[in-house]
């Protein structure tokens, strides 16, 4: 098929604005899926994605559409994840497209999350076609939304398509818009092969499945390919497209989107954003934009029940097969025993991994406080990378501690400027730029310490801007800061798993909040439980959980001993979600509190 | 099969009540007309079955307990028939303790000499309180006067051995009200008393009220103060606390209930009755089973098959060891470490290492080969028992 008959596009939308429903309509209309066989929202495949309403993994689909001009087109829909933790994956998906549909809810107007992605699409020179969806709603106000798109995003919306994915209104107009308004891919089938890896996942039967967009040249079954960044060489065993089920093809050429399998054992052997070329006839330059993804946030994962250690290791191995941006290595904690230090892209990524471990592998886990990687210079001149607060050298041996900083660009409506600036200052940010982008829109650029971001910055940003602020960020090196280790002591003993590195000015408040939260979460026990927050030997906060004084069943006869025993067994079962630290039993939630204060 | 020839205890369940108390979660039923005759026949038939069982035949009975429900809803003649059947089936120890539970609301003065003549030698009366306000709150059918009268009748009928129950820590109850109850109780010079802290048992109307916030329990401190007042007052009257909720003059403890806590065998007859047999076979450390709970279905099953067992559970080593301790440690004298070791192959502290921590924390102590809960430990018994599971 010639390049003129291919369109590669993605859909940008806020949660609940109808992206998945619209995708379903496009699939139905083009006959890729009949209405009868569809399950709701085909593209979001993981349970977690459905529950959280976010798409984590892009799942491209190839649609065949005969347009009004009588010609048949191949439309490749490349879905994108929708969270700041996955910004890089979004950028790679967008880089594979020439156009993007911008879906905006006709009743709610433009929401924050979409703004950043539209800007990213425009940065990648994508043609953006606005679609005003849900026009069937009684509260729909397409004209206001049209103006909103122009004011808030700065995009011409005069020819926005009016649609209702739910009612099937506007589906054909959208397909025509894709054909007429989006440019066709460029590139030459005769040049050396260059294909961009958009995504990669693990299939238990076939090994890694690599999703890619071919820019130049072509590949066929049997081609020997090389990953230009990692240098790994493979032989293509299968090649195909999803429509939406997998369909094998003999070759994929410039402009096309599809998958390959090549007996790749681990997803980690392929990198999203890497360029695939032919081993024997390599391209001179890889495609631009590749960044190796590095975990930014670290925390320890420990089984509540020590017997689950081996199961946890196996589960981590399995998840890693599918997610190369997440890392783990064994570590031990005095308080928690054997576990793993894991690295994540961000807190959401961490939450997702933890939930999958608990749900899909039936594990009960304790997560230690999240931390970033600090650079510590000792008085001896030695430099250390610290990804676990426990390993921070003694205060006297430290010359200086540097923390990673990010440069964040935040887009927001002007009315929220005060709140957002306040938040950035509170989070120890340094302002770099304030720019007015239109009558109502502002972009601010701040350098912020990453460890302030990982706690709750994103949630707070959403809350101070009622969801309208959007953010993208990139790493901006290291900066020296006055940081200290905050310890939690329970009945005098330091619980190593709860230690955290914080700015000295904030240590007192963090300590106080944490200790108060823990007092609420630790149930009364047979002994008094004293919880303290300390910097070195200095106690900054103290709370106590009073000893339980009475817990006894008055009556125990009539012979029904089984029932009494089962009652005790049930209570024992409930205690399994607690971790014994010294004499004290600490529930999982109390460990999680250290993540949230 | 190992034949254990030790004596055992026999429990007879009479499931009928005149009304259902809102705190009670026992297997009791209120019916228009109590089928006394048919139910008695079913009990006799079930006894016959066990008379033919290898596990029980020929063994001596050390105690018999008519519990309920309200056994005093049955006529002395019915109780007599049952006791007669028992003594034909099994040899009775010469000092066999034969207890019958009575409700003051069912005592008309004429029954008690009859129970005595039938062979009953101990009466346990469900007094609960002598305060009209609390009796009403507890949904009892009897008045304070009827309670007192019932105790008079029991004593007049010649029962030297008797006991009665009190319930304390009722919502709103004051220490003064409790003290008044204790003083009246001691006027009767009972050789045995039970004092139960009110609990909101799942499935009862009280539990429902409690969960919905309409009933509030006393505070921990108030409950502890009451428990202490009881223990001190009874101790001054010579009644020693021998179990979490039970007090007796020396030598007057309930043999029947002691048997439960000492892990002895017992056979339960009647609707919903429970039985226990130690080390019956192979690797197992005991068997527990229970009968059909509904009186109607119980009678039908007996008529049909002679037995009415619905649930049976074999105890492995872990369960049996846990039970041994959580039952035995209810008694103030505790458990014999040697008895535990000889049954389970390890001392209690080796089996449950946390015992050492509790001893250090003054929740437990071990003297003269007996492991027991201290005064503080008894208040936290459940927190400790959980760790035996």
Defining traits:
heterodimer, A: 597 residues, alpha+beta, six-stranded mixed sheet, 34% strand, B: 389 residues, alpha/beta, 2 domains, nine-stranded mixed sheet, three-stranded antiparallel sheet, 15 strands, 39% helix, 22% strand
Q: How would you describe what is shown here?
A:
The complex is a heterodimer of chains A (597) and B (389). With 597 residues, chain A is an alpha+beta fold. Helix content of chain A is 26%, strand content 34%. Chain A has 13 helices and 33 strands. Chain A has an eight-stranded antiparallel beta sheet. In chain A, β2 and β3 form a beta hairpin. The longest helix of chain A has 18 residues, at 504-521. Chain A is globular and about 85 Å long. Chain B is α/β, with parallel strands linked by helices. Chain B folds into two domains: 8-261, Alpha-Beta Barrel (TIM Barrel), CATH 3.20.20; 325-388, Arc Repressor Mutant, subunit A (Orthogonal Bundle), CATH 1.10.10. Helix content of chain B is 39%, strand content 22%. In chain B, α2 runs parallel beside α3 (111-118) and α6 runs parallel beside α8 (220-236). The longest helix of chain B is centred in the middle third of the chain and has 17 residues, at 220-236. Chain B is globular, with a radius of gyration of 21 Å. The mean pLDDT of chain B is 93. The chains are: A alpha+beta (597), B alpha/beta (389). The interface between A and B is large, with 26 and 49 residues.
Layout of helices and strands, plus pairs?
The complex is a heterodimer of chains A (597) and B (389).
Chain A (H helix, E strand, L loop, with lengths): L5 E8 L5 H11 L17 H6 L8 E6 L5 E6 L9 H9 L3 E7 L6 H12 L3 E7 L8 H12 L7 E2 L8 H11 L12 E10 L3 E10 L1 E3 L3 E4 L5 E3 L2 E5 L3 E3 L2 E3 L3 E5 L13 E4 L18 E7 L5 H14 L4 E7 L3 E8 L2 H14 L4 E3 L6 E5 L4 E4 L11 E16 L3 H10 L3 E7 L4 E9 H15 L5 E12 L1 E8 L2 E2 L5 E4 H18 L7 E7 L2 E8 L15 H15 L2 E4 L2 E4 H9 L1
Parallel strand pairs in A: 1-3, 1-4, 4-5, 5-6
Antiparallel strand pairs in A: 2-3, 7-8, 7-16, 8-15, 9-14, 10-11, 10-16, 12-13, 12-15, 17-19, 17-20, 18-19, 21-22, 21-23, 23-25, 23-26, 24-25, 27-28, 27-29, 27-30, 30-31, 32-33
Helix pairs in contact in A: 11-13
Chain B lengths: L7 E7 L21 H16 L9 E8 L7 H14 L2 E11 L8 H8 L3 E7 L3 H6 L6 H13 L5 E7 L6 H13 L4 E6 L7 H7 L8 H17 L3 E4 L2 E3 L6 H7 L4 E4 L4 E5 L7 E6 L3 H11 L3 E7 L1 H12 L6 E2 H8 L3 H4 L2 H7 L3 E4 L2 E4 L1 H5 L1 H5 L4
Helix pairs in contact in B: 1-2, 1-10, 2-3, 6-8
